[in-house]
Design brief:
Shape: elongated
Order of helices and strands: HHHEEHHHEHEEHE
Strand content: 15-25%
Structural class: alpha+beta
Number of helices: 8
Radius of gyration: 22 Å
Length: 240
């Protein structure tokens, strides 16, 4: 039987791992953020503790992995809710995968496998941060200008110009914020260059269709984009 200290240690370690992953997701305005990841890792850790203590291995008819396997399967429903399909584009796969891995981390801490839990947490954080920046630099070098098919601009269209330090992010989280606040992207133009200080800069030009609730959505959207890392300037104007 586990002591109270050991139970608290396992649950606290799981919550710390989930909190670290969730903080990174929160910074890029993902739907599954800080609290969601904590609840997943702590909840799954508790399931693992129950599995390995109350249903201890060795007893006839007991399967300590049964609850754990059901927990992993159940996380799939949460992950499915984070995946959004827009035409030929699918978003949220990384967030859904992160939820699933967070559940596995919770199982590791719940089983007392601290070393494995810490190692996987570090790998996940590196994937969400350092590897994201590397991917943006490597796979977007040939995307100097990205435009959608020509579309007729409506009267409720606006032009948004965003200047950003590309070492902190590219365009994915900006698109996510625009989508959350009801803006439809008609066209995107991207201009990359370097400042006098040698920093890698990007200027993104969005042609957008305003949502029904114009003022409230625009104000909230601008505030959310301002909070993204590396955002230096935002300009919004109507399209003539």
């Amino acid at each position: 039987m586990l002591t109270t200290f050991e139970v608290c240690l396992r649950l606290f370690a799981a919550s710390m791992a989930g909190g670290l992953i969730g903080m990174q997701r929160e910074r890029v305005n993902q739907t599954a953020g800080f609290r969601t990841h904590i609840l997943i890792t702590v909840g799954v850790a508790l399931v693992m503790i129950i599995s390995t203590t109350r249903y201890a291995p060795g007893a006839v008819g007991n399967d300590p992995m049964r609850l754990a396997s059901q927990a992993i399967s159940g996380i799939g429903f949460l992950g499915a809710g984070a995946i959004i399909k827009e035409g030929a584009t699918i978003r949220g796969l990384t967030t859904a995968t992160g939820l699933w891995v967070s559940a596995a981390i919770g199982l590791a801490f719940g089983a007392g496998m601290y070393r494995e839990g810490v190692i996987v947490t570090v790998i996940v954080l590196i994937t969400f941060t350092i590897l994201l920046h590397w991917k943006q630099r490597v796979f977007t070098e040939h995307v100097d200008e990205k435009k959608a098919a020509p579309a007729k601009l409506e009267k409720n269209s606006v032009k948004m110009t965003v200047t950003r330090d590309l070492s902190t992010g590219f365009i994915e989280d900006i698109r996510e914020v625009l989508h959350v606040h009801g803006f439809d992207i008609i066209r995107i133009a991207i201009d990359r260059g370097r400042s006098t200080e040698g920093e890698d800069k990007g200027v993104f030009l969005f042609i957008l269709t305003l949502p029904a609730s114009r003022e409230a959505s625009a104000d909230a959207c601008l505030s959310a984009i301002h909070r993204l890392p590396g955002i230096e300037h935002i300009e919004l104007e109507t399209v003539e």
